[in-house]
Specification:
A: 112 residues, mainly beta, 6-stranded mixed β-sheet, B: 114 residues, 7-stranded mixed β-sheet, 4-stranded antiparallel β-sheet, globular
Chain lengths: 112, 114
């Protein structure tokens, strides 16, 4: 069975703090893809990043970084020096065999 | 840029009404999807389509049907709306040749059934 767990329902931080959003997944398949999407208050899910199961290299994009560890089945997302515009719901997802499995989302509140 | 549009951002309907939610994508994607999003449940797949006139049930198809007469358009139909169908509905599309399956989403339709 495929499953994605985002244990943090809601996180509140003050601007400029670093914050890590956790994502743990379950799958028995060896080939799969992991995603993070951002959903701002406007509602549209915005694609942030995709990793395949064979590439465990961490990735950094500006203030965003992702840590993929197959040993712990985790794909965590860190925002450095958070900003108010980072306030959104963030979804982690697993994709394989033409199907997406979404986590329940983590709502991030960044206060000025 | 991929553009996925949904016909309405907000809809208010009465129990028993027939409801149509329209989704259009402009990137010639073969695959289109309808999800509903509820607090604490994430996104759940209702129906998807891999080609014109093709449809497949997702995880929660009960109470819904779909139509795909043209490649760019995928409609979700609530035959007889009920209050438990009050939700956020999200449409997405993806390219079938893309093995990693990245889906691009529309802005969502918030449906309230009274």
């Amino acid at each position: 069975a495929q499953k994605v767990t985002q244990a943090q329902t809601e996180i509140s931080v003050v601007e400029k703090e670093d914050v890590t959003l956790d994502c743990v997944y379950e799958t028995r398949d060896t080939t799969y893809y992991l995603f993070w999407y951002k959903q701002p208050p406007s509602g549209e899910l915005v694609f942030l990043i995709r990793r395949n199961s064979f590439d465990e290299q961490n990735e950094i994009s500006g203030r965003y970084s992702w840590n993929f560890q197959k040993s712990t089945s985790s794909f965590n997302f860190t925002i450095t020096a958070s900003q108010v515009v980072d306030s959104a719901v963030y979804f982690c997802a697993l994709y394989n065999f033409n199907k997406f499995y979404f986590g329940s989302g983590t709502k991030l509140n960044v206060k000025p | 840029d991929v553009k996925v549009t949904q016909s309405s951002r907000y809809l208010v309907k009465r129990t028993g009404e027939k409801v149509f939610l329209e989704c259009v994508q402009d990137m010639d994607h073969e695959n289109m999807f309808w999800y509903r999003q509820d607090p604490g449940l994430g996104l759940r797949l209702i129906y998807f389509s891999y080609d014109v006139k093709m449809k497949e049930k997702g995880d929660i198809p009960e109470g819904y049907s779909v139509s795909r007469e043209k490649k760019e358009r995928f409609s979700l139909i609530l035959e007889s709306a009920s209050t438990n169908q009050t939700s956020m509905y999200l449409c997405a599309s993806s390219l079938s040749q893309n093995p990693e399956g990245t889906q691009y989403f529309g802005p969502g339709t918030r449906l309230l059934v009274l």
